[in-house]
Design goal:
9 helices; alpha/beta; binds flavin-adenine dinucleotide; 5-stranded parallel beta sheet; 7-stranded parallel beta sheet; 15 strands; 27% helix
C-alpha cells in the first residue's frame, strides 16, 4: 500500500529537467550529477537530463534514473551562458518542465539565474532540503542559519547543494538519449570562450572525494603547497586537495580548488585543514565533513573550535613527519 505521505513526497512536479554537468575537458559527467538527480527524484519520477555539450551525450544507456536525456545540438557556442540559456529557453518550449534543476556549482550558478530571468520564473539557490513542492530549505549567513523558503510559483528553477543529497546509486533502467535541435539559437553574446584553465589532477574530484586535504596562506609558496599538501594527499588513497581563498589569492593553488562560501562546498569523511585559520567563509564550505583535523601553530585560532582533532605546531615540521608515517 502506498500511503499519502509517500505520494506527496515523491511526485510533486510533473517533470524536472536536470542540467547535466561535464568535467573540465567536457567529455565525462561530474560526480555531483548523481546527487542532483536524487534531489530531482524527490520532486518527480519524470526526470529529464539535458546536456549542453554533444560530447556528453554518453549518458545514454547508463542507469542514471532519468526518463530521457536530450543533447542540445546548437550552432552557437553553448559553453557561454548567454547562448546556453537561449538554447535552454527553446528546449523549455518543447519539454515544458515544471522545474529546472542544476548543481549549485560554478556551472549551475552561471546558468540558472539567467535562465530563470529569461523564463520569468523564480530561482531558489543552494537548496539543501526539499520539504514539499513549495517548501525548501537553504543555508544563509554562510551556513550559520537555515532558511525555510516558500515558493508558490508553479514553475521554478532550483540549484542544489550536492553534498546535502546522497548520490543516486542506480537508476531503474538505461537512459534513452535524443538530440534536440536548437540550431536557431542566435548568438547574441559579446563574449568569446577562450579556454579553461583547470587544476588537471590525477586526484579525485574535490566535491565527491572521501578525504580532502586543504592548505592555507601559511604554506607561503606554490612549491611548498604542492610538495606538502600534495604529498600528504598522495599518501592517503582517495584524497583530494583543497585550498583556502587566501591560498588561492596568493597563487598557491588554482581557483577551482577553493573551499568555502565562494568556493566549493565539501562534505568528506575526513577533512584536514593545514595552516588555515577557520574564517566563517571557509568553514561554510567544510563544516559538514564527518571528521575535521586541524594543523595550526596558533592554539587560539577558530579552526580548533570546530576540529575533532587538533595538532598545534609548525606545519613545515608536522606535515613531512605525518606524510612519512602514512606512507609506511
Ligand atoms: P589566514 O587567515 O591568514 O590564516 C593562516 C593560518 O595559518 C593562521 O591561523 C596561522 O596561525 C597559521 N599558520 C601560519 N604559519 C603557520 C605554520 N608555519 N604552521 C602552522 N600554521 C601556521 N575564504 C575561504 O577559504 N573560502 C571562501 O570561499 C571564502 N569566501 C569569502 C567570501 C567573502 C565575501 C569574504 C569577505 C571572504 C571570503 N574568504 C573565503 C576569506 C576568509 O575570510 C579568510 O580571509 C580566508 O579563509 C583566510 O585564509 P587562511 O586561513 O588560509 O589564511
Amino acid at each position: 500500500m502506498i500511503c499519502r505521505q509517500q505520494i506527496q513526497k515523491r511526485f510533486l512536479a510533473n517533470s524536472v529537467a536536470v542540467l547535466l554537468e561535464g568535467n573540465g575537458s567536457g567529455d565525462a559527467l561530474t560526480g555531483n550529477n548523481k546527487n542532483v538527480i536524487t534531489a530531482a527524484r524527490k520532486m518527480s519520477d519524470n526526470v529529464i537530463g539535458i546536456v549542453l555539450n554533444k560530447r556528453l551525450s554518453k549518458p545514454a544507456g547508463e542507469q542514471l534514473g532519468l526518463s530521457k536525456v536530450f543533447a542540445i545540438n546548437g550552432k552557437a557556442d553553448l559553453r557561454l551562458s548567454e547562448n546556453a540559456c537561449e538554447a535552454l529557453k527553446h528546449v523549455d518550449g518543447k519539454i515544458k518542465p515544471d522545474v529546472w534543476m542544476a548543481a549549485h556549482s560554478a556551472f549551475g550558478k552561471n546558468i540558472m539565474p539567467r535562465l530563470s530571468v529569461m523564463l520569468g520564473i523564480p530561482c531558489l539557490s543552494d537548496v539543501i532540503e526539499i520539504e514539499s513542492d513549495n517548501q525548501f530549505k537553504r543555508p544563509i549567513y554562510a551556513g550559520n542559519a537555515i532558511a525555510s523558503v516558500q515558493c508558490d510559483a508553479p514553475k521554478k528553477a532550483i540549484t542544489i547543494r550536492s553534498t546535502a543529497f546522497e548520490p543516486l546509486t542506480s537508476g531503474d533502467k538505461p537512459t534513452e538519449s535524443e538530440e534536440i535541435e536548437a540550431a536557431d539559437v542566435n548568438s547574441t553574446s559579446q563574449s568569446e570562450y577562450l579556454k579553461l584553465e583547470s587544476a588537471e589532477q590525477a586526484r579525485p574530484e574535490l566535491g565527491s572525494a572521501r578525504v580532502v586535504i586543504s592548505g592555507g596562506r601559511a604554506l607561503k609558496t606554490k612549491e611548498d603547497f604542492d610538495r606538502l599538501i600534495g604529498g600528504l594527499a598522495d599518501s592517503i588513497p582517495g584524497a583530494a586537495v583543497g585550498a583556502s581563498r587566501a591560498a588561492v589569492d596568493a597563487g598557491l593553488a588554482p581557483n577551482d580548488l577553493q573551499v568555502g562560501q565562494t568556493g566549493k562546498v565539501v562534505a568528506p569523511a575526513l577533512y584536514i585543514a593545514v595552516g588555515i585559520s577557520g574564517a566563517i567563509q571557509h568553514v561554510a564550505g567544510m563544516k559538514d565533513a564527518k571528521v575535521i583535523v586541524a594543523i595550526n601553530k596558533d592554539a587560539d585560532c577558530p579552526i580548533f573550535q570546530i576540529a575533532d582533532y587538533g595538532l598545534v605546531g609548525d606545519l613545515f615540521k608536522i606535515l613531512p613527519e605525518l606524510t612519512d608515517k602514512l606512507r609506511v
